[in-house]
Design a protein that fits this description.
heterodimer; A: about 300 residues; 2 domains; 5-stranded mixed beta sheet; B: fumarase; 7 helices
């Protein structure tokens, strides 16, 4: 068997490289469809620039210079034997990707200032751990850009405002940032739990495939309503006008405290970079979003 | 709406010809990257009576923190899409008055202070499609210097030779027009329709 640390490291490096240079196929297809659907000249120009940009990026160049802050989602099987290797492998892979992809050093110390230069540092990469059944590990590289992150919010609403109040928060937020988050966007909404839980759920929604509808019809309906409402604002690609402001809105929830209605709104730019792989306990690797050629 | 192919340094006269909706492609040696920290440093230097290492007059100031790498001892821009310009609203008007840059390039537009300064100085703001870093890098042909590198790669002052860098869409001109302000009005006018879709009556 290959060295587990090395396999996790090499897999993560490929995940980062693929994430920053190639969009998952469903997201690229959605931008393509939007570009055909737009009638506004400026909107068409913006989307066509994005598509040309993606073609160039596909040759191995980061599609956006803001290659994000290093965030990973790791679902580790309780019986996966190499849990202890994961954190160091993700950290070292981030360093290697910084030099060799290359990706922009984006880890800045907020207290004493200074950029670490290698995308690692205090608590970064940030790893969202989840322990699941089984003996394999699923790693998602999710380098998140700053522009769209800057308009993500948490609202602590009064429960009395109900679901209409929740929808208003999401729509008002979209109206306030217009195109500043590099629209067309994907919006994740997390309702309930608590302030931290709501935004965590919201961000996790950004990992769902675009065609995925929430299994509960009441929630799926909120997703549809929000998408329809935000696309009728006319904000359009880059906020310069058009029909396509969001490619998707994904909602999920947790139970809430009787006195609280927390709502997290996570905003993703069109450069929705993510890449996922599964590594079994025998070190067999399967790439989900960006399959190896020939597979 | 016209298309212009301009060469730097750009004169005030040429910049004043530009109108919202025009598309520009820029070629030349006077293309500089500057984000928050480079703007602040340039303004501090002015206050102290010091001269920055480059002449900003007639230049293109690109709001970008590029990804670059060094190959065979030479820096090369790899990916360089625009950053959010409104952050520079704090000091862009002063920067324009003191240094007379002619074309600002960024994303998302800027505010009234900058719009007023564009009018006064005779400059324009152009939007470049956000996130299109790979496409932009094609137009940023050569890195001539990597200055103020103590600020880190994104915040440094990159000195660039551009070749047909664009398309840059003029969204704020020297005549007081802003496509961003116009869009605010368009969207505000649709608010009732948008709210109706989520069951809110205004």
């Amino acid at each position: 068997m290959e060295d587990p640390y090395q396999v996790i490291h090499d897999t993560t490096f490929r995940l980062l490289k693929k994430a920053v240079t190639e969009l998952p196929p469903d997201i690229k297809a959605a931008i393509d469809a939007a570009s055909k659907n737009e009638t506004d000249e400026t909107a068409k120009t913006q989307l066509s620039a994005i598509l040309t940009n993606l073609d160039i990026a596909g040759t191995g160049v980061p599609m956006c210079q803001d290659t994000g802050i290093m965030i990973f989602y790791v679902k580790v099987g309780a019986k996966f034997p190499f849990i202890g290797e994961i954190k160091e492998a993700l950290t070292q892979a981030s360093r290697k990707a910084t030099k060799e992809v290359p990706i922009r050093p984006n880890a800045v110390n907020p207290i004493v200032g200074g950029n670490s230069g290698d995308n690692t540092g205090v608590k970064i990469p940030w790893i969202n751990w989840e322990i699941v059944d089984g003996d394999s590990v699923e790693i998602t590289a999710f380098p998140k850009g700053g522009g769209s992150e800057n308009v993500s919010i948490v609202g602590m609403l009064k429960p009395g405002v109900g679901l209409t109040g929740v929808k208003k928060l999401v729509v008002d937020n979209a109206l306030s940032y217009m195109g500043k988050a590099c629209s067309p966007n994907i919006i994740g909404v997390g309702i309930g739990g608590g302030s931290d839980i709501a935004i965590k759920i919201a961000k996790q929604q950004l990992l769902r495939p675009l065609n995925d509808k929430h299994p509960e019809p009441e929630v799926a309906k909120i997703e549809e309503e929000l998408m329809d409402a935000i696309n009728s604002t006319g904000i359009g690609p880059m906020g310069l006008g058009g029909k396509t402001t969001v490619l998707g809105v994904k909602v999920d929830y947790a139970m809430r405290h009787p006195a609280s209605l927390p709502v997290g709104v996570a905003v993703q730019c069109w450069a929705a970079r993510q890449s996922t792989a599964i590594i079994t306990k025998d070190m067999k690797v399967t790439y989900l979003t960006h399959p190896m050629e020939g597979n | 709406m016209a298309e212009y192919h301009l060469t730097t340094p750009i004169s005030e006269e040429d910049a004043r010809k530009l109108k919202v909706g025009d598309v520009i492609y820029v070629t030349g040696d006077h293309v500089y990257t500057a984000r928050d920290e480079a703007h602040e440093r340039a303004l501090h230097m002015f206050e102290k009576g010091e001269k920055p290492p480059v002449d900003f007059e007639g230049s293109v100031i690109y709001h970008v923190g590029p990804v670059a790498w060094q190959k065979d001892g030479k820096w090369k821009i790899v990916s360089a899409g625009p950053t959010t310009s409104i952050r520079m609203e704090l000091f862009e008007d002063e920067f324009l008055r003191k240094y007379k840059a002619r074309i600002l390039v960024g994303k998302g537009g800027m505010g009234k202070k900058t719009l007023d300064a564009l009018k006064e100085v005779g400059s324009v703001y152009c939007s470049y499609t956000g996130g299109c870093g790979a496409l932009a890098a094609k137009g940023l042909k050569e890195v001539r210097a990597y200055l103020w590198d103590d600020l880190g790669m994104p915040e440094a002052l990159w000195v660039i030779t551009a070749e047909e860098f664009g398309p840059l869409l003029v969204t704020m001109d020297s005549h007081g027009n802003s496509m961003h302000d116009d869009m605010d009005k368009v969207v505000a006018a649709r608010k009732a329709v948008v709210y109706a879709k989520i069951g809110i009556k205004e």
